[in-house]
Amino acid sequence: MVIGQRVKRLEDYPLLTGRGGFAADQSRTGQLHARFVRSQVAHGRISGIETDQARARPGVVAVLTAADLPPSFPKIAPRQVGFDEMVPYLQSVLACDRVRYVGEPIAVVIATDAYEAEDAAEDVFVHIEELTVVVDPRVEPSAWDDLGHDTEVMLINEAYGEVDEAFSTAECVVELELSVGRHSGVPMETRGTLAWTDPMTGTLHVGGAAKVPHYNRNALASMLGLDRDRVQLHEIHVGGGFGIRGELYPEDVVVAWAALRLGRPVKWIEDRQEHLIAANHSRDQVHVIKAAVGLDGVIHAIDDEFWQDQGAYVRTHGATVPTLTATLLPGPYRVPAYRVRGHIRLTNKTPAGTYRAPGRYEGSFVRERLVDVIAERLDLDPAEVRRRNLIGHEEMPYLRPMSVLGSKIEYDSGQYVRMLDRVLDHVDYPTLRADVAQRRADGEHVGFGFGFFVEKSGLGPYEGVRASVDPDGALRIVTGAASVGQGVETTIAQIASEVLGIDYASIRVSHGQTDELPYGFGAFASRVTVMTGSATHLAATEIREKALEIAAQMLEASPEDLELVDGRISVRGTPARSLTLGQVAADLDPSGARRHGTTPSLSAESWFHTDHMTYPYGLHFAVVHLDPETGHVAFERYVIAYDVGRAINPTLIEGQIVGGLAQGLGGALYEQFVYDDLAQPQATSFIDYLMPTLMEMPEVEVLLSEDAPSPLNPLGVKGAGEGGTTGAGAAIAGAISDALGSAEIIHSIPVAPATIWATLNDA
Amino acid sequence: MSSQERPVTLEVNGDPVRVFVEARKTLADTLREDCGLTGTHLGCEQGVCGACTVLIDGDPVRSCLMFAVQAEGSEIRTIEGLESADGTLHPLQQSFWDHHGLQCGFCTPGFLMLAAGVLEKDPNADEETLREALSSNLCRCTGYQNILKSVLAAAEKLRS
Questions:
Q1: Which of A71, A156, A653, A691 is surrounded by the fewest CB atoms within 10 Å?
Q2: Distance (Å, rounded) from C-alpha A120 to C-alpha A54?
Q3: Residue closest to A721 by CA, chosen among A534, A535, A530, A498
Q4: CATH assignment of B5-80?
């Protein structure tokens, strides 16, 4: 059994020894370097671009602006959750006549040296007539263009059940305004692209792709007017994904176009300042939420209205984040009636996209704060209110009558109450509660908070692998999915090893290469273990069956009498009569296959399809201590329970959970893209955009469980990539509010030390 | 060699190296581009994230904040020089592998060189000292728990 084992990762050796190949590590002979000229104004009309001085600098090969693009050059379209209403709000790859956020690409300088390109970019002078900016997404929508479109892109409406009736008869109504700040994935590796054309074939190659190489290949081909097979994307090492990395951005398209136009390789490596103002932002929602509740704490209806600050354009994620927010907000609770209106509003900030646990981080913060306040107003225990509302195991599968990302929302399995009990037992809740109460009475500022949530994972519609055994016995697996550093190769190898009995460490897994497999969906939505893992299981099973069938012919035995152990097929009870998988593969060359009456090679191509997502779930529980002198938040306990159905490699899952928490905690306490009144970004370096270090991280107690395997795939797995993040804002804000003396104090994250200090010092 | 370039002599991972670089070229870019050592990564070029940490005369240094010309005559060690000549991994590298101390691996060379520098100077560094030192670099994947675990286990091994 290798599934469930804490085996070491296959990925690590090159990464530990400096042999990795990240985007900036790739080079081509004769390559040029690109540097973008970006808007320094948040909103304005471009009245002129002076490029002569830049062109005259040594080493400068070209300075390109929107005027150099082919006529009617397409804008970047949504990859998912796109609607016709969004078309007017899409971003041009280079700004034409108007700029709408600080950081928007206006021109690109191409030079023989990166330092020279950067110098020359400073010599491009852009004349901009400034226009009024929009900073607050909640002000009345204003004109976005001259064609009658305003700053509300669309309104999302979802509802089920008798909401008005529930409110008119409610014993208690709780209403809150809650907000989540603007932050994002911010991987340690910035974006980077190297594009070149193969002089022999004319094929455009793009290195540094990530997340969704196949989609991006198709989109690039379409935008550049090339046949798909003339564009190939190559994923190499990726320094963190988190939703932001690997989407198709304006810079990627411009670099590819420039390489085609100039006939030379063009390399672009983003710097950190650019990253913080040009790559997708995320979160940033304000909710006004109310609940109709019985005196027993049972929620009869929720009515929510929220505003999503989408920034200056709609990008590849379309309405993904607000849609997920709207439909998954009820989370693990029954909520028999529900209504939500979500406004997607444009402002003059960097455009937004997804970030790990998109919509669920925000929705969980809102829902769990609401539950805490319900408990306090009704003088009930917050754990007990959760228990009374949790969907029961016997109610699974549980249909929430809405749909998201093209699939209906049906929680496939879950033992939510069992998880709550496990965490309460683990922390000895009655004792902990009494202890906290006593310490509070003694004047300390301690408190605890919960963040119960349902995640989603395993988004379809398909993923495939091609697996083959070489005559030397090595198993090679090619998948169209991608890796962003989460351990895909190890996980996939473990799944194949389980079926074929080949040492997982000898299995080679390749991913993210558009020329190796024609279709691939990619690495997002915690989907790879579910989708690629299931496809791998199917392919390995097919190889196993074929191997047994051919070995039976070779050994002159019946397939039922054979067993496959450690990559060797033998006749049960007669171990001397045996063959390795490699020997079987060797006998399946085209001549051998003809003799055996089958197709050549010991290989299989399998596709796993699904119309439904699978829903893992979890609970964050935090205990914090506040320092009244500094407003500092110290964690005394941090527990994360998470159910993934079946754990392929618990060590990797725990790694995902703890790493996910660092990001969730950053959003709860430190990280924020602050803008001033002129929509000038204030967080453009790691001095201003504060990410947690080791000193800010608590010792995390992870309670990984397999209570609720998914019935939707052959392995029973659910995705593990996001749950470490999802409940963090909720639990941390809840704990701080509790420590401040009431559930009703903290209404927004990140919670700054100044807020805590002011509350404790009555300032 | 253009008129603006000047010779710089370094010792990199035990080998003498002579490069010609502009005075404004950072040590990190010089290592990556002129020495072909791309294991030193650039995460911010603002001196905050520490992905570019190398050892200069034994001290952990942000190579993005230093010009190559400032390193004239220095002994530099990068991630490529951390394993033994026979390919045996340094105990820190092995420990990061054993304790899942990395995910995407981008920040890893910086953490390894930082920890190597600290432990070479103070083999008996206690957990508090190591926490303090390791908090000078950023990682976005692991949440640090396993990085600390890896370094503590390696420190133990190096002492024994």
A1: A71
A2: 5
A3: A530
A4: 3.10.20.30
A750 preceded by a cis bond (ω within 30 of 0) = yes
| Alpha-carbon A47 to chain mean position | 39
- The CA distance from A638 to the nearest CA of chain B, in Å, is 13
Q: φ and ψ at A12, to 5 degrees?
A: -75, -35
Tell me whether residues A190 and B38 touch, CB distance under 8 A: no
Nearest to B143 among A17, A18, A659 (CB): A659
| pLDDT band, very low/low/confident/very high, at B1 (cuts 50, 70, 90) | very low
How far CA A763 is from CA of A52, A624, A760, in Å, comes to: 56, 22, 8
Q: In angstroms, rounded to a whole number, what is the distance separating the alpha carbons of residues A23 and A21?
A: 7
ipTM: 0.98
pLDDT in tens, A616-632: 999 999 999 999 999 99
Outline which parts of chain A fall under CATH 3.30.365.10: 359-457+613-760, 462-609
Fold of A359-457+613-760: Aldehyde Oxidoreductase; domain 4 (3.30.365)
Radius of gyration of chain A (CA): 27
Chain B residues with CB-CB distance to A272 below 8 A = 43-46, 49
How far apart CA A495 and CA B87 sit, in angstroms, is: 30
Most distant CA pair in chain A, distance? 88
- Enter the pTM of the model: 0.97
Helix B108-121, helix B91-98: angle, nearest 10? 130
Beta strand spans in B28-95 (E) = 53-56, 59-62, 75-77
**Cα A296 off chain centre by:** 37
Mean pLDDT of the A281-289 span: 98
d(CA A208, CA A694): 29
CATH superfamily, with its number, for domain A12-131+190-238+245-278? Aldehyde oxidase/xanthine dehydrogenase, a/b hammerhead (3.90.1170.50)
Q: Which residues pair with A64 in a beta bridge?
A: A108
CATH of region B91-159 = 1.10.150.120
CA distance A259 to A206: 10
> What's at A309, amino acid-wise?
D
- The gap between the terminal CA atoms of chain A, to the nearest Å, is 61
Chain A hits for B145, CB-CB cut-off 8 Å, are 658, 697, 699-700
Q: In chain A, where does the domain assigned CATH 3.90.1170.50 lie? A: 12-131+190-238+245-278
- Rounded CA-CA distance A193/A118 in Å is 16
**Which among A8, A18, A691 has CB closest to B79?**
A18
Strand, coil or helix: A188 = coil
Return d(Cα A99, Cα A512) in angstroms, integer: 34
Q: Assign domain A462-609 to a CATH class.
A: alpha beta
